[in-house]
Write a structure and sequence with these properties.
The radius of gyration is 29 Å and the shape is elongated. The chain has two domains: 234 residues, GroEL-like equatorial domain (GROEL, domain 1), CATH 1.10.560.10; 152 residues, GroEL. The chain has 16 helices and 17 strands. With 512 residues, it is α/β, with parallel strands linked by helices. Strands 6, 7, 8, 9, 10, 11 and 12 form a seven-stranded mixed beta sheet that branches. It has a three-stranded antiparallel beta sheet with strand order 3-14-17. It has a three-stranded mixed beta sheet with strand order 4-13-5. Helix 4 crosses helix 13 and helix 5 packs antiparallel against helix 16. The two termini are 47 Å apart. Helix content is 49%, strand content 16%.
């Protein structure tokens, strides 16, 4: 029999897996996440990592599943729901074996053998078109469309797949997604979203009185206080015997500020971007000198701006000869919807681009951002690991068949665990079909027959509810994502199966 604690661990993990199971696949449902804190913020999503991050959990085994979902999100960006559901299926099958008096360590040993066979089969299914740019770009488009088909962007997946692929190919093999800026603007529809491939958009306004358009720009990017520098002597008092002395202190402060502005202008810049506020006095002096001033370029905005323009972020202004100024061809204000933004055109860093997401309300725009971010993560990883595999549950069926074939050569009790592993893999296409409202038993039986006949690229086409060739329909996944799903879910299931007791730890003693 299962010990009570092993039972509690598995039940807790299964509850989490069942929670996100209904959001798996192209016809998966969304969840409304409602905050219990004041304000009761609401968000609508079907992103596994976002759902699990927000769930209130006190079961330690369930936290293991939440952690693997988070790792999947950080590592490859997509497959966060799959990894959780697959780990849950492994545990469900293992619980039945342990119920029949099989030792958990035997199950773990069988799962290890099965995982090796599954990954070997996954390798054989992978196709690499990186030698042909045209075919590889089409692979990237197909991966983006498959990733987006289970998200809120599924209706406009062609449009967003093109945006995501253009942005990622501009990175030229880098996985630094900071160079892709995503700006969210409520209003319009999702189809009004677009990629600005040449420009960098900054969600700020140009200071009052400064030029609103500048060509051949030399940009100084700074992080320095530009308020009238108060006498910052904390905990001390200055006593004066007349108001004239106060005026002298204020005059000294102004002189100090204007001296700082003159040191900034000595750099020969015609655009000054500062992370902090710029008060009226320095702003006026800069406007008089014909310099465009932009304040409050928030922190990631400042870092990204320096990256895009090829500039240094400066805090002191005594060595103008050592400071690298950013350059671009044109800076101007543009309107997006009802808002003004600043557009930097002709930047030297050709890898940077900006994506503007439009949508009917805040929830739609936020979910579109999460979906697009997933697609960008997957594509940037695929550009490095260029192999692709058929989607629609084809690889799960292939791996299950490979595990069953490998189990025929094993003589120990691990055979039962390997067969259970294969059943768990076959449960994934069943969930995808169930979520679409089709007869999953019939579809998976038909799919299994196709695979035994050697048609390993066949999977579930959920728009029509039939079994089709996935390559013909352009339904494919990134090899790296699927490999990470199998590895993470197997390890998480093994980890939970090895537990037989939960020990409460004493609170940490404070140092005397």
């Amino acid at each position: 029999m299962l010990t009570a604690l092993t039972q509690a661990s598995i039940v807790g993990a299964l509850a989490v897996a069942d929670l996100v199971k209904s959001s798996l696949g192209p016809k998966g449902m969304d969840k409304i996440l409602q905050s219990t804190s004041r304000g009761g913020n609401v968000s609508v999503t079907n992103d596994g990592a976002t759902i699990l991050k927000s769930v209130l959990i006190d079961n330690p085994a369930a936290k293991v599943l939440i952690d693997i979902s988070k790792v999947q999100d950080d590592e490859v960006g997509d497959g966060t729901t799959s990894v959780c559901v697959l780990a849950g299926e492994f545990l469900r099958q293992a619980a039945e074996l342990i119920e029949k008096k099989m030792h958990p360590q035997t199950v773990v040993a069988g799962y290890r053998l099965a995982r090796d066979a599954a990954l070997k089969a996954l390798d054989t299914a992978a196709v690499d078109n990186s030698k042909s740019p045209e075919a590889f770009r089409q692979d990237l488009i197909n991966i983006a469309k498959t990733t987006l088909s289970s998200k809120v962007l599924s209706q406009d997946k062609e449009h967003f797949a093109e945006i995501a692929v253009q942005a990622v190919l501009k990175l030229k093999g880098s996985t630094n997604l900071d160079q892709i800026q995503i700006i969210k603007r409520i209003g319009g529809t999702l189809t009004d979203s677009y990629l600005d491939p040449d420009g960098f958009l900054l969600d700020k306004k140009i200071s009052v009185g400064c030029p609103k358009r500048m060509t051949n720009c030399k940009v100084l990017v700074a992080n320095t206080p530009m308020d009238t520098d108060k006498v910052k002597i904390y905990g001390s008092k200055v006593k004066v015997d007349s108001v004239a002395k106060v005026a002298e202190i204020e005059a000294a402060e102004k002189a100090k500020m204007l001296d700082k502005v003159d040191r900034i202008l000595a750099h020969g810049c015609n655009v000054f971007c500062n992370r902090q506020l710029i008060y009226n006095l320095p702003e006026q002096r800069m406007a008089d000198a014909g310099v465009m001033a932009i304040e409050h370029t928030d922190f990631d905005g400042t870092e990204r701006l320096a990256l895009v323009l090829g500039a240094d972020i400066v805090s002191t202004f005594d060595t103008p000869d050592q400071v690298k100024l950013g350059r671009c061809d044109l800076i101007e204000e543009v309107m997006i919807g009802e808002d003004k933004l600043i557009r930097f055109s002709g930047c030297p860093n050709s890898q940077a681009s900006s994506i503007v997401i439009r949508g009917a309300n805040e929830h739609v725009v936020d979910e579109a951002h999460r979906s697009l971010h997933d697609a960008l993560c997957v594509l940037s990883q695929t550009v490095k690991n260029t192999a692709v595999i058929p989607g629609g549950g084809a690889t799960e069926m292939l791996m299950a068949q490979a595990v069953e074939e490998a189990s025929q050569k094993i003589e120990g009790k691990q055979v039962l665990a390997m067969e259970a592993y294969a059943r768990a893999l076959r449960a994934m296409p069943m969930h995808i079909a169930d979520n679409a409202g089709y007869d999953s038993a019939e579809l998976v039986a038909e799919l299994r027959a196709k695979h035994f006949a050697g048609k390993h690229s066949f999977g579930l086409q959920m728009d029509t509810g039939t079994v089709e060739d996935m390559w013909a329909h352009g339904i494919c996944d990134a090899y790296k994502v699927k490999k990470q799903v199998v590895l993470s879910s197997s390890e998480a299931a093994e980890m939970i199966l090895r537990v037989d007791d939960i020990v409460q730890c004493a609170p940490r003693q404070r140092q005397q």
